[in-house]
Records
---
Amino acid sequence: MPDLKEQIYKTRPLTSTFVVAHLWLSRGFKLLPCQPGTKRLVKSFGPVAGRVLLAEDVNYWFRDRGANLAVIAGPDSIILDFDQVEIYESWAAGWPDLAGSYCENTPRGGRHVFLSLIEPGGLVVPGLIRGVEVKRFCMVHPSKIGGGTYDILNPGPIFNVSVETVKKSLEPFFEPGQSNQPDTTGKPGGLPRASHGVNNGLRQNRGILARVKAAWPILEYLAYFEPRLRLEGKGEWLSCLCPWHDDHNPSMRINTVTNTWRCFACGSHGDVVNWHARKLATGDMVIAARDLEKYRVKP
């Protein structure tokens, strides 16, 4: 008898959300319920805390309440989010073995490819990827958004591949900039590892980086440079829509203690200097720090 985990999407159509949710749960994915027809998470649920872990909760949210389904990949899995079908097809033509892994169409014409990594620790790539995001969570079939549906493109199993193979397949799409990677800390609750910027190895530049970071607490920086950004929550962790991608669900987390930020959708992360570098469209942290120093530096 075929392994259920290797046959979870062999039978079409699987339109019952709670059945599909049970199957994702059997593969080690965490589940998030979203409001029907939207990407808005049900209150008290999110990528940092609040996940559906038990079978009875799966039944309640996805059978009884008819919630949309989002999944969170474990530390040994990733999701490649292709913005456009042309980019996906270019990637798939060069790497048909990877493209044979389980894949879904998105309502906006993109592709989600699910991969399991042989090596623990997740995937780290050297820069931004043109038209591709490395995700740890996303909406999945049969969720509906704005009249569109997440549909199964390739119903095969999730392939087990090496980190180096995935990185090599994405090399043609690399662009210089911030690291685009999933959270792979494995900490209880999925809390992100604090990032304190880029160490460029030049001792003479460390002074200005430290000085500017100390001068600009993250909340003061956002209030000054991002006045339209709406922060929600209280205490150490705040959330907001990520300004670095088309975010319809608050994916950005701001840590007011470490003065760092991370988007759990597109993988971008850093501190105030990293943010300012992205705002200036430069990958040079020193240039960003010098520009930020013009505005104000506390004595």
---
Amino acid sequence: MKRTFTLLLLLIMPFTLFSCNRRIGFKYVEGKVNIVATTTMIGDLAFEIGKENVSVTTLMQIGVDPHSFVPRPSVTKAIKEADLVLTNGLNLEAKMGKVLQVLDDKLIELGNFLPEEDLIKDEYGEIEPHIWFDVNNWIIISEVLKDKLVELDSGNKEAYLKNYNAYKEKLNQLDEYIINKADTLDKEKRILITAHDAFSYFGRRYDFEVLSIQGISTETEASAKDIKDLATLIVEKKVKAIFLESSIPENTIKSVIDAAKARGHNVVIGGTLYGDSLGNINSGADTYINMVKRNIDIIVESLG
């Protein structure tokens, strides 16, 4: 009986620990700025800037794909009652449109604060919404959130400024860490192939050629031609490893591996990257900073 209880405790610990600072299940807390965040990355950001002066509810749990997230009635209730609602925007939370349309100025679509010329678009003109993989974007967004919290809760202005400055310093260190880590790879090895097109900002900032099987949204499907063309490129460039993503099934990736093998080239799964969601407390990717570090470590180790 004791062993069964211990195992059960281990299973629920990741959920419990994650919930301590970034609540799952909305409850209005008096005396704090009540924030509802769509993704786990934004929930983490809100806590870092707000700390003890905010109560953060994250709508999407760990491992949930934001492209396909469909809000339940409880989500609508939370959004209406919150003091501040934070979304990524840029069509990431595409299926939440109707729910978010009813909001007034308490809705902050963070991606809209980036300079338009810095946004990446695909061949069809669709904006790439995975802005968090360029750490400089996250610094800009952190400042936006800091300013909004100061506006809503001016009595705690100094605390928000202190939190922002400390977090900005950590983000600058993270950016430098990624650059230095990437520099250990020869240029011809900097080819990052993933399940869907989530790493374009990463590629632009840190000088990687980024290729994917699916498009910007996980709702798109890879055709037989897409798989064949990508396998051909892998063979031609002698790519050593390709990568899974934590919130996406691995079937399509395996199809590419099989297609490359049929051409006489063995490419392996380099590991699982965290794309649209943080990991749990035991993953080493439970915060934005940890997630980005974990990704670059896996990439360099697998391609080097």
---
Amino acid sequence: MFEEVDQSVQERDLENRVRQQVRERISHLDSLSDDELLELIRGEISQVGKKEGIPLNLRNRITFQIFNSLRKLDVLQKYIEDENISEIMVNGFNHIFLERDGIVYEAEEHFASEEIYEDVIQRIVGARNKIVNEISPIVDTRLEDGSRVNVVLKPIAVDGSLMTIRKFPKDPIDMEALIEFRTLNREVAAFLRSLVVSKYNIFVSGGTSSGKTTFLNCLTEYIPDEERVITMEDSAELQIRSVKNLVRMESRDRNLSGKNAIPIRKLVKTALRMRPDRIIVGECRGEETLEMLQAFNTGHDGGMSTGHGNSTEDMISRLESMALMAEDLPLDVIRNQIASGIDIMVHLEKYSNGSRKVSEISEIRGVVDGRVALERIIRYDEEKDDWIWVGRLQNTLKLKRAGEE
């Protein structure tokens, strides 16, 4: 009989035994539909349950636990489905941390074994035709619902393979919501709308979890309906719904033989042949920065991109470094590319209280004394909790052409 005192231990043992029996009976689980797999699991559970006196409610629970481990994401599945959880952090198979309403805590559950955890990782990565192994132990990918996934395998991850899942809301946050959240005010939003409509090239910078991708997504609301927009990302995270003529491209890692990789740099080159009105590069992380700058300098105005930086000045330095990764060009050439390719820098910050704000908007005003010159137009005053206009837009030509001045 199934003894209650050891129920948790026996439940895990039963789950592992039935899972193994199912694997042994069916060599290709992917050939079964969800309903067929559930029926198979129920049959195995029923046989064991009658023999060992397992309660019906426990059989049902174990059935779905096994189904989730074989077809979905095992113990993570319910956290994926919980709309109040924004981040899932797995530190090895036996430690799962969750972020809910800005608070991080450790989950009570964890994977039953390292084997199951590794199987889930490979299922997630393989679903997007990506590869993670000892040769290539770090990968960025996404779930079917668009959630962003980062994986780092051991031994690079010393205490066990790591997986971080950044979830995005089912209904994308819009600019109106950002105004309600006090990420910016209506006056700043109106200014940005004029810049987008007038096809200024805008670069959004910020630190980790400052909301760069969300903000970029909101900016696209202002793109006129008739325009053709092409996006390029490592993992498709942008949720652009206001653009009808939208082309989305995603980079591809090299295959097992180390070939056939398609980096963002190649996608940017390809996009220029696809008659774009605007080009959006989800995030600049390396060599693609040079292609992004060159695209912005070839008459394709209205471009947008994001990058990781602690300030606008820091972001300019990082853009210089990342562009130099692509080609060994003189630094003054790179700086001229930045100054002529990017019009506006928008910087976001996450503050100690968990709020995210547009901390400043600056205009790039050429190269002065050998450096990219930045002139701040708007800054966020934390003491007043308000946005202060500290300058004026100097390059108003695009505003005039669009009738937005």
